[in-house]
Structures are given as structure tokens and as C-alpha cells.
Design a protein that fits this description.
Length: 543
């Protein structure tokens, strides 16, 4: 009958119609400018082609893969031909005149095409991330993209996330997943904490004992809830990434606009090194092993001695690392160097005298400057934790400030570029709730709203020329109490989402309630889709 025919046609048209477009007002991190256009939405189907200008060939395949994973639609990918007007297309365009800032993109959809214009790979990657948020998440084939123009660029140049793979070791697959999380959030730096008292996690060809000995420890502290007593799992624990693994991750990150900053932590935090090479220590003792308890580790000597063979070692190791990583910056640690061991060492004292150094702080600076010189020869700059400023240091070193606002401002006043990573509120190893049954964390309390309301620009610098030394900020993920990828995800989500907005979006547009709405509308469905664990009770806990 007519009635059934109409009903069937109605049903079919509902099933076959492209899925509704996603609203541009739900994007995270919030774009600088969104203009709704009075045109028809762009319909994307199997006929749509992804075109690219030559610098963005790999990003075109990246977009194709992500679109396919999200919608099931496998689009063709083709180079863009100059002068040819494309219809029914998604175009990745090199257009410095339209996107006239670093990392900027202009996304425009209407008239049957979506174009993303940028002047660099990062801009294209961010345009892609935004486009994917304009596409429905359900597994539909065809879909619509609303007619819209988005002009967008970051507020801060350095947007980082850190991961400690020493206290707990994570498979390469998870490191890549973590990089995908960063890319989604428009971060551009991954700080890879590769060495510490509790292990050495990167293959070094010239010093094989770093991997046969330093990469392994006898036991690991476990415990998952506050109520659980500390227990030790006596199984040998560890691992390391081969240089081939590292190359693979670097390549993976590069496609996603992410620079990887490796950290080799010296001259303190070197217990694992000393376990394999006791000759580099002030108090050589072959019975000491790789640490398996946490804390500022000076129970056993973890400080390198200023001997010729130590400096030879540092030159070689940093040489291998500098050759491997394209990053213009290499992190040399420099935090929490206990001066006790140098004080107690006649050899270190003699070295201090011989080199006219003021004291142990001067010796610490000497170490930093030596490594700085090795790296300068490789065209690299040094990043270190803020303790590297304890002595006088030349201003090319970038300071990663894990102390407060004032300390960050002081480093900038000394004309050092500064990355802000204050324990409060950017240590994501701290608690995000005060629920006594919450999963075990190290200490502190950094709930979601504290992260969201953080301003990386120290108060004392606002409106001052030195403000330009504040490059941005980073969330740190120390993994003493994160024994699995799921626990890392639980600690970073949703705090890293809040941080992405702190770093990317215009601080004038900050609104926590609106952030929560967009978090729930746009991002939490992604966590679920990624199969990621996340902290759910963020609405119950505020500062
Ligand atoms: C301090 S902050 C450390 C790390 C610990 C962390 C725990 C810094 C540069 N060093 O070694 O893992 O506290 O929150």
C-alpha cells in the first residue's frame, strides 16, 4: 500500500541520509575564532577526494586513516594540481598568506569542499584534528560538515606532556598511543624521561652495560589504593627501547607534529648508571644496584663523580642521543642533585679546587656546561630542570621550572627561556580527588579545575618584556604509582584535556562550565572510543 511505501522510503532516507554535522561550538581546545557561514553543509561520501600540497603528503594519509577509523569511509588521496578548482574535496593547502602565523590553520567548509590552510605541518595537523571534531563519531559512512570558517592558532608556543618510563616501563605501543593523545589535544612536544635511579630505558651502543644492567631492577614497589600497604614484587623488572624503536616513535610523532625531547638525567638521579659503571661514582662500590624504592634517591650514591672517564661517558652518550633525536633541544635533567656525596669525596673536592669552582653548586654548573658544550657541537640546546640555575649558567639553556610562579619569573628575568611545569597544578601524578578510596598517587592535590584555571604566565611578568621568555607549559607524569597504561590514562584524563585548553585557547574566553560541557560533549566520547581509562568524578572535586 501507499502507506507502507511512504514508510519504507521514510525509513530508508533516515538510514541513508548523511549523519548530522557536529557543532563547531563544541571543539576542544576552543578555537580562537569560529565564524558560521550561511551555506549548505558539505556532504562527504565515497566520491570525496583528499587533495594535498606536496609538504603535507603524509598528513593526507594520516587524515585518511583517522577518517576511516572514525566513519568507515575510505577516501582517495591525491596530490593537488595547481590552478585546478576542486569540488567535492578535502584540501590540505600550503598557504602562508592565509595562515600567517606559525602552527596556525584556517579551516573553511562550504560550496562542496573543506579546505585546511597552513604554513607548516603543525598547522595542517591541528586543522585535521579540528575537522575530525566536526565529523560525527558514530560509525556512519557518509557525513556532513557544517559550513564554517575557523581561524585558529596556539596561545603558547610550547605545549608539552611528559612521561616517566623509568619508574614504570611502558610498551612502545603505548608510547605511540600517548603520542596520539597528544596530537588530538594539539600538543607539540613530548618529553620522554628515559633515565633515572630506577632504570635506564634507551639503548646506548657504546656502553652496553647500560642495557644489560642499568635497565633492570630486582624488585618493584606495587600497591594500587591508598588503603593498601606498600608491597614489593620481587620479580626482575625493566626493559628499554632499542634505537630502532626510538626511530619508529620519532617518525610516528613527526607525522603528528610532535617533537620528542629525550631526557638523560644527570649528574644526580644516576643510580642506575652507577650500578653498571661504579667507576663513574664518587664512592665506587660494586655491591650497589639499580634502585627499586622511590623518593629523592640519595640513600645510595646516585651522583656522578667529576672524573675524565665520566665526562668521556657523557660526551659519548649525549652524542648518541643527539644523533638519534632531531629535536633541537635535549633535556639533561639536573634536578635534585644531592651535594652530600661531592662534599664527602676528596676527589670531587680536589676537582672543585683545581677548576676554581666556588663550591658543589659550581661543580653542578660545570657538569651542565660540559654537556652543553658537547651538545652545542651537535647543534643542540640544553633544557634542564630549574636547579640548573643554582650556579651561573649561560642563557642559551632552557629552564623547566617545576617550582612556583615566582621561581619561573626569576628565571625569565635572567633571560632564560622558561617552560612552566609547576608541581601545583601540573603534576598529574598528584591526586585529582580527596576520596580516601581513590587510586594511590604520590602526594598533593591537583583537581581538574585547578589545572583549567592555571595561567602559565607568571603574575610578575604580565605586561613586561620578559614575558616573551615564557614559552609555555607542560604536564608531568611521574610513574612511581602508575604500573600500567590504564593507570597513566586514569591520571592524565581529563587533566591533560584541561591543560590543552590552557595552552592553546585564548585565556579571555576561559569558562570552566563551558569547558566541562565541551569535555562531555566532545572529548569523553573519544576517551571511550579509544578504550582509555579516565577519572570520572571530576565534577565532585574542586580546589
Ligand atoms: C620530583 S620534579 C622529581 C621526580 C619525582 C617526582 C614525583 C623532578 C624534576 N623530580 O624524580 O618522580 O618529584 O612527584
Amino acid at each position: 500500500s501507499n502507506f507502507f511505501r511512504t514508510l519504507i522510503i521514510l525509513c530508508l532516507s533516515i538510514i541513508l541520509a548523511p549523519a548530522q554535522a557536529q557543532d563547531a561550538s563544541d571543539i576542544v581546545p576552543k578555537p580562537q575564532q569560529v565564524i558560521q557561514l550561511k551555506q549548505k553543509p558539505v556532504e562527504v561520501d565515497h566520491e570525496t577526494v583528499i587533495y594535498y600540497d606536496s609538504p603535507y603528503a603524509v598528513q593526507a594519509s594520516y587524515l585518511k586513516d583517522l577518517l576511516q577509523a572514525q566513519t568507515g569511509l575510505a577516501l582517495r588521496v591525491q596530490p593537488l594540481q595547481k590552478g585546478k578548482k576542486q569540488k567535492d574535496a578535502i584540501i590540505l593547502q600550503h598557504a602562508p598568506e592565509a595562515a600567517n602565523k606559525k602552527e596556525m590553520y584556517v579551516l573553511e567548509s562550504g560550496n562542496g569542499t573543506v579546505s585546511i590552510k597552513a604554513q607548516d605541518v603543525n598547522g595542517i595537523v591541528y586543522g585535521i584534528q579540528t575537522l575530525l571534531q566536526l565529523v560525527p563519531l558514530e560509525n556512519e559512512k557518509d557525513f556532513k560538515v557544517d559550513a564554517v570558517k575557523i581561524l585558529d592558532y596556539p596561545t603558547f608556543a610550547y605545549r608539552g606532556m611528559h612521561l616517566d618510563v623509568v619508574r614504570h616501563f611502558f610498551p612502545l605501543e603505548f608510547v605511540k598511543k600517548y603520542i596520539d593523545y597528544l596530537a588530538f589535544h594539539k600538543f607539540n612536544n613530548f618529553h620522554w624521561h628515559l633515565t633515572d635511579d630506577q632504570g635506564w630505558r634507551i639503548e646506548i651502543k657504546s656502553y652496553p652495560k647500560l642495557n644489560s644492567i642499568s635497565s633492570w631492577r630486582d624488585s618493584t614497589l606495587i600497591g594500587h589504593f591508598k588503603s593498601e600497604p606498600a608491597r614489593y614484587d620481587p620479580t626482575r623488572y625493566g626493559g628499554y627501547y632499542t634505537q630502532d624503536d626510538v626511530k619508529e616513535v620519532i617518525q610516528y610523532a613527526k607525522v603528528r607534529g610532535i617533537n620528542i625531547i629525550p631526557e638523560i638525567d644527570i649528574p644526580g638521579h644516576s643510580r642506575a648508571t652507577i650500578a653498571a659503571y661504579p667507576e663513574f661514582s664518587t664512592h665506587p662500590d660494586t655491591t650497589w644496584n639499580v634502585a627499586y624504592t622511590w623518593g629523592m634517591y640519595n640513600r645510595q650514591n646516585n651522583v656522578l663523580a667529576p672524573r675524565p672517564e665520566t665526562f668521556e661517558f657523557l660526551k659519548t652518550v649525549f652524542g648518541e642521543v643527539a644523533d638519534l633525536f632531531p629535536s633541537p633541544y635535549i633535556h639533561i635533567g639536573g634536578d635534585e642533585t644531592s651535594k652530600l656525596w661531592w662534599k664527602a669525596s676528596p676527589q670531587a673536592q680536589e676537582f672543585i679546587k683545581k677548576h676554581n669552582l666556588k663550591d658543589e653548586k659550581g661543580l653542578q654548573t660545570y657538569f651542565i656546561e660540559q654537556v652543553s658544550d658537547y651538545l652545542k657541537a651537535k647543534n643542540k640546546k640544553v633544557i634542564g630542570w630549574h636547579e640548573i640555575l643554582e650556579g651561573d649558567l649561560d642563557t642559551s639553556a632552557v629552564v623547566m621550572n617545576w617550582a612556583d610562579d615566582k621561581n619561573g619569573a626569576a628565571a625569565a628575568m635572567r633571560k632564560h627561556p622558561v617552560i612552566m611545569t609547576p608541581g601545583k597544578p601540573l603534576y598529574f601524578d598528584h591526586y585529582q580527588s580527596q576520596n580516601p578510596n581513590d587510586s594511590l598517587a604520590i602526594h598533593g592535590y591537583n583537581p581538574l579545575d585547578a589545572v583549567y584555571n592555571y595561567n602559565p604566565m607568571p603574575t610578575a611578568l604580565r605586561g613586561k618584556p620578559e614575558a616573551r621568555f615564557i614559552l609555555g607549559a607542560q604536564g608531568n607524569v611521574w610513574t612511581e604509582y602508575m604500573g600500567s597504561p590504564a593507570k597513566v590514562e586514569y591520571m592524565v584524563f581529563p587533566r591533560m584535556t584541561a591543560l590543552s585548553e590552557v595552552l592553546w585557547s585564548n585565556p579571555q574566553n576561559k569558562n570552566y562550565q563551558d569547558f566541562l560541557r565541551r569535555l562531555e560533549e566532545t572529548v569523553i566520547p573519544r576517551y571511550k572510543r579509544w578504550g582509555a581509562t579516565y577519572f570520572k568524578d571530576y565534577r565532585d572535586w574542586t580546589i
